[in-house]
Amino acid sequence: MKAVGFTTSLPINDTESFIDFETEIPKPTGYELLVKIKATGVNPVDYKIRQNSVKGKTLDMPKIIGWDAAGVVEEVGDQVTLFKKGDEVYYAGDITKTGSNAEFQLVDERIVGKKPVSLTFAAAAAMPLTTLTAWEILFDRMRINEKDKGKSILIIGGAGGVGSIAIQIAKKVAGLTVLATASRPESVEWCQQQGADYVVNHRDLVNEVKSAGFRQVDFILDFVDVNQYWDAFAELIRPQGAIGSISDPTQPVNLRQLKSKSVSFHWELMFTRSMFQTGDITEQHIILNKAAELFDKGTLQSTLTTTLSGLLADNFKTAHRQMESGSTIGKIVIKY
């Protein structure tokens, strides 16, 4: 099968940062599905893994990354019960396994959902990782529920991949009042399109939130840099509120700043369930199926903004270059 990978960690402008190559089609066993991939999404985790996972060494066989895919089930393992050959699926995969930048991929059925019927493969491939991340942090980590309807949530990084769908889920599923950060006219407009009630500039966060009419907010989601905004979070969060983050802090986070307000703090990593084979691993299958219903009803919209055509190293270089710029709005997908 055709695949795109790398044998060492290189800057994206290096000609060998991604290479085209051929490899064997894997065979599914156990809970595994063999999926013929039609499209794959690109996320910040992709370039972080490319930059850091093979530093200072060279692999004999190229590493295949990619953790967002939509495709068709080609073959199933002997313990599979949720899917059959020919089913159209979407999923974000397992960071400890071979990725989706290839013609075929093995994936555990328990973290796979049925592709939304109303979405193209490209539009569907844009959504699993970000939807799971946003859903898990809101409902599994921070335990937001019916009693919280109408409460306020501040989303840092509203125009990014996770921020875009988090705005939609927070507004249209959880029923929250949504404040999102953005600074450029195009990113402000994008956040508004996703359903944000207010868009504030992250460069003066505390004053911007207060100018929007909020002395404090009930929930805060950080999709950018928890260190950069921590003092602002501690000031803005309401007593007994909750803060959630997916970012990778370079310095310790001072949780003592939250003690007087009895504020809870929650980490989210979408890969936790698959990495540790948790007892509730099938929850990701359930979440993706719930989300598929919401996409098909029109409650949620795909956040696909850029589509590149062809399983080619050059397309992954283009996508990673754009992701590394830090100015991406929505999601980039490569269709095969």
Automatic annotation (TrEMBL):
Annotated InterPro entries: ADH-like_N (IPR013154), ADH_Zn_typ-1 (IPR014182), ER (IPR020843), GroES-like_sf (IPR011032), NAD(P)-bd_dom_sf (IPR036291), Quin_OxRdtase/zeta-crystal_CS (IPR002364), Zinc-ADH_QOR/CCCR (IPR051603)
Which segments constitute the Enoyl reductase (ER) domain? 11-334
**What SUPFAM superfamilies has UniProt attached to this entry?**
GroES-like, NAD(P)-binding Rossmann-fold domains
Give the subcellular location: Cytoplasm
Keywords attached to this Swiss-Prot or TrEMBL record, sorted alphabetically, are: Cytoplasm, Metal-binding, NADP, Oxidoreductase, RNA-binding, Zinc
Q: Does the keyword RNA-binding apply?
A: yes
One Pfam family from the UniProt entry? Answer: ADH_N
**Mainly localized where?**
cytoplasm
Q: Where is the signal peptide?
A: none
Q: Does the keyword NADP apply?
A: yes
The entry sums up its family as follows: Belongs to the zinc-containing alcohol dehydrogenase family. Quinone oxidoreductase subfamily.
Subunit text: Homotetramer.
What name has this protein been given in UniProt?
Zinc-type alcohol dehydrogenase-like protein
Q: What taxonomic classification does the UniProt entry list for its organism?
A: Bacteria, Pseudomonadati, Bacteroidota, Chitinophagia, Chitinophagales
